Structures are given as structure tokens and as C-alpha cells.
């Protein structure tokens, strides 16, 4: 199916595409945002006017070609409008995750040398003001939400409203300037400084050019087509490259309607109201949705639970045999369930950013949700592989796009090696870091991904195993992927996060974080008394429940890959503590360092590990934690010695 959109060799920048859409379809809806319970709409004409006035206001402030500007806040129309406005004056944008700590914000601002920061509200302005002395490059801070801002008198502050007035006045006096700025834009110039995930070190900024990005999106749209007027709900952070692909690039190319939820806490309710045609959700959201469905079934009558489990088994069997969901299961439970989730109009659903567990994948496919796994890296404009609609293999990440090249370097006897890739949209290098660029990309433009994988011989699908640095080997030489086992465990509604250990150890162990809301609900129904996360995770009944989940996963694994000991951690893993990236990937090096005593305890003969530590909360307050972690042995030392 050919995608009908403007010629991106001519309209090779985001401002050019926006101007094209505004000229030809000025009254069609482009953006929609929920505010105080009401969906407010911006047409392509409104969108163009907003961007034009911001851009000319920025020009009045002296923002020039090649200057860097940062954007921080929740997903909002002002975010994408501010981005395109910076591009219109020839600047480069970089996004900052809204939950970033002050030192993370300071690092990115100084790395990029940002002259201007567009901040959503008082909370984000405070972050920038608190690091003023560390970031002398910042000349202007534009804030969108004026609530709480009257008490500030910093000369660098300017409201978006005042900036828009500056831009509107400039346009009245110079009506041709904005059109000239847009026409002068070059698709080969760096448009986005996209932060990498920073799994093993501080994030780098990948230089992405609008023209090549749009060229790559042509291939994406051939593999996963869109239509004008399709609804997309933007819930993943806009600094992430895939949200840029969906909410900015593809939206401009095919005139999708991008919907912004009122608050992160209301995203699923708002999504149900919209009934989108496409969604892109992180694996943790799909896992949470699956866990929520299973938790609700705990409250159902025995007969309804029997019907549910019967339909699940029938649906999975049908999908394995025919590649399609069971009609009986669909009409009995899955159709109303899809309606409840807001998925009734979906033509395509995607997950990316990290691997999704095969059990979670099978669950949604069996429900009739057209879920597809995508795979890619920031440097390669996000995804460059995807499943075809009629060729979904839940063990794989699909096949490469039309002009994306993927190969396996240094394969072993099973065909497993490092995934190497290139495509037309890939980055031009790391900003201010030529050495890192040379280390990642060879002379022929191939990039080393750092991931291990192989191609399936029977269908040509790419299978991603894990990060090469994370693939582990036990003392006896058994290779295993911690991520694969972790994802199987996270299908449980009781388990939120897992870290599987065992590299250069005699056997596998696991540190498990319970899914607090689900476990709390389960505990309340059984009159189990608890006060907080620490107290709940220490309950014997909770340990017993989680043990059954671990044993069920163990039964599906080869013996050498089974978990022999586990404990329930006293806290959730947190990005603010450096344990996860902002895209929720585990930083294994940090985990090994922070929890070294606990890990040592797991491999000792002790069945109880004392903990005396301090937790720092986001507001800076601290709390001392003194507890004892119980270790559960699924295989006793005697049995291991016999084996």
C-alpha cells in the first residue's frame, strides 16, 4: 500500500510540511489536548499560526541558526509547536525528560550549550533556576503555564503569551519573514539532538537531520500505513526518538491527529475516550495492562474466572494454529475487554524501547489487539524492523524496513552475533563527540548496536536476545539472557520489576520488586495487615504468592536457566536513584554496585539478609530503612550438591 504524502525531497523539514498542511487543509484538526476534562482542538491553520508566532518571537530574542534549545515538560501541543518553531529559525532542539533530576538537567543543558529553555510550568522552571550557576549558557527561559509564576523576577524568564505577542507583532510588521525562514530551511541541517538511553553511561546527543528522518519515515509508513485523520494518543515522553517519529514526523507527513492526555495519571481513561487507530506503548505499560486485567479477574466469580481462563487457552491455541484469535473467545470476553481498554478501533499497536515478554505479547495477540514489536536505536531514528500485519512472530522483532540494512557480525555456530545496522535516516554523529561516533559507526555507515541476535531461517525474522554486555554465563558455562527470564516473570500481575543474577555464579537468583497496587489489593482481600511497601513485601503470604509465580516460570525454562533463590526487595527500582534509565531499562552495573551486599547474601548460606540503609525521596527528604530480607530457596544446597 502506497502512502500518500507530500514529497519529502521537497518538503524536507518539519516547518515546510506544517506550512504545506496549513495551506491545503487549514480547517482539519491537527492537535487535540484535554484540559479540565474538555478536549480542545487546534486545526492545521491554528498549528501553523502558533508555530509562526513562537518562531518569530524566538527570532526577536536572537535565537539563530545552529543554536540549541531545550524543551522540558509533559507532552503538550506547546512542546511540538516549540520544537518546530526552533527548527524554523534554524535551531536544534533537545528534549529533557520531565522527571529528570536537577543534575541530569544541568548535564544536558551544558552538553548542548542551550541558549533557551522552553519549560511547561513552575515545577520545570524551578529545576532550571536551581541550576542557574551551573548553566551560564542559558539566556532565556520561556514558560507555558503562568500559574505560580508571579513571584519570580529572574530577568531571563518570559511567558509564552508574551513571546507569542512579540512574534505576532513582528509578523504584522514583516509579513514575509516567516515564509522566507521556512523556505531557507535545509533538511540536511541538524534538527534534533536526541538523547540516547544512557544504559551504561551518561546519555549522548545523537544528531538527527529532518530530511533523512522523513525519508526513513516513508519506509516506516510503507510497513505500517497511516491515513489522514487517524487518531494517535501521545503518552510516551517526547524526548524519546520513537515519540518524535510518531507525534511529529508521521503526524506531519500523513496528517494524523495527535491527542495529548490531561495528565499522565489519566492517560488510559483519556485513551479510551479517543479510541485511537494507532498506539505506541512501552513494554511496562502493556505489562501493566495485562496485570490489571488479571487482577480484575481475581475479583470475579468462580464461573467468570473459569470462562476467562477457558477463553485464554482457546485463544492462544487458535492463534498458534491459524494466526488469528478465536472467534468464540473474542465474542465471549475479548470484544468487551477491548472496548474497555479503548482498543476497538486499533489497526496497529506497537511496543518498543525494550523487549516485551512473550507471554504478554501472546496475551494481547490472542485478544485480537494487532500488536507488533518494533526494534531500533536512537541513532537509527528509532525503529527499523517491524512485524507485517499477517506475519507476527512473538519471539522476534519482525523484518527490516525497505531501505534498512541489518546483518549479524561474528555469528557463532547458532548464528548468534552482534546486530549491525544502517538506514537512510540514521544520525550524522554524536554532538561534540567524534570519538564516540568513530567507535560506533564504520567507514561504510554500519552502526554497532551492542545487541546480540540472529535471523530465523524459516521466516527471516530478526530475534534480539539481549545486550551483548548483559548476556551472562554461569560458572558451569551455561549462557542465559537475564532479560528474557525477567520478562517472563513480569507477566505476573504481582511482579513489577526483576533483576536476574547468575553471571559467573553457580546458579541463578533473582531480586524481585512487587507490583504494589496489585499486591496491596490482593492482600486487603485476604485481611493481610500492612502499612507500606516495605512492610507488604515482607509478608509471608506475599512471599508464598510470588514463589508460585516464580515456580510457574521455572517450569517453562531449561533446568540451567531456572531461578534457585529469590528475595523481595524492600523498594521499587527507581530512575531517580540511577537504577533505571528514563525509559525504564535496568542499569545492571548500578544494581550490582548498590546492592552488592544483598547479592552476596543471595549466594551465601544465609536465609535472611539484614538491611540498614537510607532512602532519598524526590523532594530531598530521607528515611532510614532497617529490615531483614527473607531468602527463598527453590532448590536447596543439598539438592544442588547432588546435582
Number of strands: 28
Classification by helices and strands? alpha/beta
Main pleated sheet: 5 strands, parallel
**Percentage of residues in DSSP E strands:** 15-25%
- The parts where pLDDT drops under 50 for at least 5 residues are none
CATH architecture of the largest domain: 3-Layer(aba) Sandwich
Q: Helical proportion? A: 25-40%
Shape: globular
Number of helices: 22
- Any idea of the CATH topology of the largest domain? Rossmann fold
Q: What is the distance, rounded to the nearest whole angstrom, between the alpha carbons of the first and last residues? A: 57 Å
Rg over CA atoms: 25 Å
Order of strands, widest sheet: 4-3-5-6-7
The number of domains is 3
CATH superfamily of the largest domain: ANL, N-terminal domain
Amino acid at each position: 500500500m502506497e502512502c500518500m504524502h507530500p514529497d519529502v525531497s521537497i518538503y524536507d523539514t518539519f516547518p515546510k510540511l506544517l506550512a504545506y498542511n496549513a495551506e491545503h487543509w487549514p480547517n482539519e484538526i491537527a492537535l487535540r489536548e484535554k484540559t479540565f476534562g474538555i478536549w480542545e482542538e487546534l486545526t492545521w491553520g491554528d498549528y501553523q499560526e502558533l508555530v509562526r508566532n513562537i518562531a518569530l518571537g524566538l527570532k526577536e530574542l536572537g535565537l539563530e541558526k545552529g543554536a540549541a534549545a531545550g524543551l522540558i515538560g509533559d507532552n503538550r501541543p506547546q512542546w511540538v509547536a516549540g520544537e518546530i518553531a526552533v527548527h524554523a529559525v534554524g535551531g536544534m532542539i533537545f528534549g529533557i525528560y520531565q522527571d529528570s533530576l536537577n543534575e541530569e538537567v544541568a548535564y544536558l543543558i551544558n552538553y548542548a550549550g542551550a541558549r533557551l529553555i522552553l519549560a511547561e510550568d513552575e515545577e520545570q522552571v524551578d529545576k532550571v533556576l536551581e541550576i542557574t550557576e551551573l548553566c551560564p549558557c542559558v539566556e532565556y527561559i520561556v514558560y507555558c503555564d503562568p500559574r505560580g509564576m508571579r513571584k519570580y523576577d529572574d530577568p531571563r524568564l518570559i511567558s509564552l503569551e508574551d513571546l507569542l505577542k512579540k512574534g505576532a507583532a513582528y509578523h504584522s510588521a514583516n509579513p514575509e519573514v516567516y515564509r522566507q525562514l521556512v523556505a531557507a530551511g535545509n533538511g540536511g541541517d541538524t534538527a534534533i539532538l536526541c538523547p540516547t538511553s544512557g544504559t551504561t553511561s551518561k546519555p549522548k546527543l545523537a544528531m538527527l537531520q529532518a530530511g533523512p528522518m522523513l525519508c526513513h519515515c516513508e519506509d516506516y509508513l510503507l510497513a505500517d500505513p497511516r491515513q489522514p485523520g487517524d487518531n494517535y494518543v501521545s503518552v510516551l515522553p517526547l524526548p524519546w526518538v520513537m515519540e518524535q517519529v510518531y507525534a511529529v514526523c508521521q503526524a506531519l507527513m500523513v496528517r494524523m491527529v495527535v491527542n495529548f492526555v490531561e495528565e499522565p495519571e489519566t492517560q488510559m481513561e483519556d485513551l479510551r475516550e479517543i479510541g485511537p487507530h494507532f498506539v505506541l506503548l512501552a513494554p511496562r505499560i502493556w505489562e501493566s495492562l495485562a496485570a490489571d486485567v488479571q487482577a480484575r479477574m481475581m475479583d470475579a466469580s468462580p464461573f467468570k474466572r473459569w470462562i476467562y481462563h477457558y477463553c485464554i487457552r482457546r485463544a492462544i491455541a487458535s492463534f498458534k494454529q491459524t494466526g488469528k484469535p478465536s472467534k468464540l473467545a473474542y465474542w465471549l470476553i475479548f470484544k468487551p475487554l477491548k472496548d474497555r481498554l479503548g482498543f476497538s478501533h486499533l489497526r496497529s499497536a506497537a511496543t518498543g524501547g525494550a523487549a516485551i515478554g512473550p507471554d504478554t505479547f501472546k496475551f494481547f495477540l490472542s485478544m485480537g489487539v494487532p500488536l507488533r514489536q518494533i526494534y531500533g536505536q536512537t541513532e537509527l531514528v528509532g525503529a527499523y524492523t517491524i512485524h507485517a500485519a499477517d506475519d507476527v512472530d512473538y519471539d522476534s522483532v519482525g523484518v527490516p524496513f525497505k531501505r534498512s540494512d541489518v546483518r549479524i557480525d561474528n555469528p557463532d555456530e547458532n548464528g548468534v552475533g552482534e546486530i549491525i545496522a544502517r538506514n537512510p535516516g540514521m544520525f550524522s554523529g554524536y554532538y561534540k563527540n567524534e570519538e564516540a561516533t568513530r567507535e560506533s559507526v564504520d567507514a561504510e555507515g554500519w552502526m554497532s548496536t551492542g545487541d546480540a541476535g540472529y535471523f530465523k531461517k524459516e521466516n527471516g525474522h530478526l530475534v534480539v536476545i539481549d545486550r551483548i554486555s548483559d548476556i551472562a554465563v554461569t560458572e558451569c558455562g551455561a549462557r542465559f539472557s537475564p532479560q528474557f527470564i525477567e520478562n517472563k516473570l513480569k507477566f505476573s500481575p504481582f511482579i513489577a520489576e526483576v533483576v536476574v543474577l547468575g553471571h559467573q555464579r553457580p546458579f541463578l537468583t533473582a531480586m524481585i520488586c512487587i507490583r504494589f497496587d496489585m499486591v496491596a489489593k490482593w492482600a486487603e482481600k485476604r485481611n493481610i495487615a500492612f502499612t507500606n511497601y516495605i512492610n507488604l513485601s515482607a509478608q509471608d503470604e506475599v512471599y508464598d504468592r510470588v514463589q508460585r509465580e516464580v515456580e510457574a516460570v521455572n517450569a517453562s525454562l531449561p533446568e540451567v536457566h531456572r531461578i534457585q533463590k529469590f528475595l523481595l526487595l524492600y523498594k521499587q527500582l527507581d530512575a531517580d536513584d540511577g537504577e533505571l534509565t528514563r525509559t525504564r531499562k535496568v542499569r545492571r552495573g548500578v544494581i550490582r554496585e548498590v546492592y552488592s551486599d544483598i547479592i552476596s547474601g543471595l549466594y551465601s548460606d544465609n536465609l535472611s539478609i539484614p538491611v540498614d540503609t537510607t532512602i532519598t525521596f524526590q523532594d530531598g527528604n530521607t528515611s532510614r530503612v532497617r529490615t531483614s530480607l527473607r531468602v527463598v530457596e527453590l532448590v536447596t544446597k543439598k539438592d544442588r550438591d547432588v546435582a
